[in-house]
Amino acid sequence: MDGELAHRLGRVAAITLDVEQDCPPYLETTRGMEQGLPRLLDLFAEKRVKATLFFTAEMAEKYPHLAKRAVDEGHEIGSHGHHHERYDKLAPSEAERLVEKATKILRRYTDNVTSFRAPNLKRPRWLLPILKQHGYTIDSSEALYKPPFPRRPRKEQGLVIIPVSVTSSVLRLPWRLQALIHHALPAPRVYFAHPWEYVDMTRENIRLDCRLNTGETALQLLGALIDTLKREGWIITTITGVAKLMGG
Ligand SMILES: [Zn+2]
What we know:
- By secondary structure, the chain is α/β, with parallel strands linked by helices.
- It has helices spanning 3-8, 31-47, 57-62, 64-72, 92-106, 127-133, 175-183, 208-211, 216-231, 239-245; strands spanning 12-19, 52-55, 76-79, 115-116, 138-139, 154-156, 159-161, 189-193, 235-237.
- The strands form 2 sheets. Strands 1, 2, 3, 8 and 9 form a 5-stranded parallel beta sheet that branches. The protein has a 4-stranded mixed beta sheet with strand order 4-5-7-6, with helices on both faces.
- Helix 2 (31-47) runs parallel beside helix 9 (216-231).
- The structure holds zinc ion.
């Protein structure tokens, strides 16, 4: 990253949601959509934060009022694929069919669907030209904490690549512990979470890190993160907002 870019991105953070069924591929329920997402949208309204919601097209079709509400309240809608498919396991022709299908559904709610996040953060490089061809300008499918390193924000094949900073379960750790992790993260900080983390999953038969502090505790912790970022002078924006600051 050059000096000017580093300066412009000095204290920029994005809050993003991967809007999907509960804890894929372990569950098929949608309690996160019914209870979690409305609570998250309420929190964002209360805190005056605009977020990016990467919807699977399937959830946008099943819960159109939530996709509409997100658009009406000024949030960005991005694509999280059609039904949470693993793009790294698909043939390119099938991947393109699903990108196209999902995009068409999501653009019923807003023309501005130009950001993409692959399910499980598994986006093969060959998908980038396909995304570009379907009008995407931003890909947020990489993670700073996953190899190969380093994974910096950059331009590649005509898209702005903006990696996520930490895994979503970090946002459910006890505050003092997660505060240490946040402090060490470089800008732009890109956080992501899922609606199902904001309903009580503690009794579900899923991995412990998927259950820990879910529900009301998670909501309070996310509120604390937003308050702390604001207090420390961070600009909280959408993933497109981050890309604009990068000059993309
Ligand atoms: Zn996902």
